Amino acid sequence: MGIRTMPNDSAPGEELIALGRLAGCRGLLWGTGGNLSVRYSEAHFVITERGTRLDQLDPQNLVLCPLLGEPGQPAQASSEVQLHRRIYQRRPDVHCVIHLSPLYTTLIACSEQEPPTDLVPETALYLGQIARVPYIRPGTEDLARAVAEALGDDRYVVLMANHGAVTVGDSPLTSFRRMETLEFLCRMVVTARAAGLRLHGMGQQAVAELRRSVYHTGG
Prior knowledge:
By secondary structure, this protein is α+β, with helices and mostly antiparallel strands. The chain has a single domain (11-217), classed as 3-Layer(aba) Sandwich (L-fuculose-1-phosphate Aldolase), CATH 3.40.225.10. It has helices at residues 11-25, 81-90, 103-109, 121-127, 141-151, 172-195, 204-217; strands at 35-39, 44-48, 62-66, 96-100, 130-133, 157-160, 164-169. Strand 1 (35-39) and strand 2 (44-48) form a beta hairpin. The longest helix is centred in the last third of the chain and has 24 residues, at 172-195. The termini are far apart.
């Protein structure tokens, strides 16, 4: 059974509240769409409550969930609770999962366009290889398994057709940086197509050299 509210001094709770407000400030939200979670312990994670506005969260809107729970448990958690659960089960390195549907990212998710991640250094470094899954009804075990499998062991971004995106990372800031960078990339692609511009990437060799340089210097 999940615990509906988190203690007021809960660090994971504070992280999610700050994350929701940041997403709102960056224009990545609309309505009550999207859900956020952080790993709480080896046996639990904290997720946003279903039907809440992510930019108006308080501790009452956060739900403690068992990592080994069944689909839909606990009932007050986001309808995508199983998606988050499957990711944490598969990826012990993931501390935070973000699912949002920003405008340009969702436009790309509703198309067959493959956004190239080698356009600028930030997209190459933060996004890596973007995975895709076909449309699967939201809130289902099928979608949860498909997204977790698409992430595999070394991917951090998944586009869900006709739905939005999921980004993961070892911290809330890293996960958010990936979502923000993804939206920037998709906006570049959509804007370029509308303007009739042809985009040129850096190329895989340049990306590899960039990553080696950054990792070597600790940047």
